Amino acid sequence: MFALCDVNSFYASCETVFRPDLRGRPVVVLSNNDGCVIARSTEAKQLGIAMGEPYFKQKERFQQFGVVCFSSNYELYADMSNRVMTTLEEMSPRVEIYSIDEAFCDLTGGTKLPRSDRFRARDKSDGPEAHAPDCRCRHCPDENPCQAG
Fold first, then answer.
1. CA-CA distance, 140 to 146, in Å (whole number)?
2. Which positions, given as ranges, span the membrane (predicted)?
3. Phi and psi dihedrals of 45, rounded to 5?
4. What CA–CA distance (Å, rounded) separates 28 from 13?
5. Is 43 considered catalytic here?
6. Beta strand pairing call for 2-7 and 131-140
């Protein structure tokens, strides 16, 4: 048995790790030079904000709905990805990293993955810097781990 672990709205989630005041608010991440939307929080998705929307066309709408915009920060996303993958590797005997925010984890044997399908990855330090974004793990059969759902 395998689990596909995926970080929820990865880039947007990374931006809120150190800004808990933004949790529950619409957050978007913009491409290089703040050209267009490349990531959205769940709340931003609920407002109908689409991937690829040009920022200059939506700026007034974002202000109207209190959407918080971030310029992309790939160094932060790489660090957060490393925290998540390290946590998964501590919980599972085999981890196959699929992308910056997804990994397949082997559930056979001594897995320490939580029973819940959601968890927050943490490293061993204390304080807000110990946090990483929320993850979701879906169990899938050995025969076809890519068909998780």
1. 8
2. none
3. -60, -40
4. 10
5. no
6. antiparallel
Q: Annotated catalytic residue: which of 75, 102, 129, 143?
A: 102
Per-residue pLDDT of the chain (149 residues; tens, 9 = 90+): 788 888 989 999 999 988 989 989 999 999 999 999 999 999 999 999 999 999 999 999 999 999 999 999 999 999 999 999 998 898 888 899 999 999 998 877 655 655 544 454 544 444 544 455 666 676 655 544 444 33
| Residue found under tokens 């310029």 | 71
DSSP structure string for 61-113: HHHHTT-EEEE--HHHHHHHHHHHHHHHHHH-S-EEEEETTEEEEE-SSS---
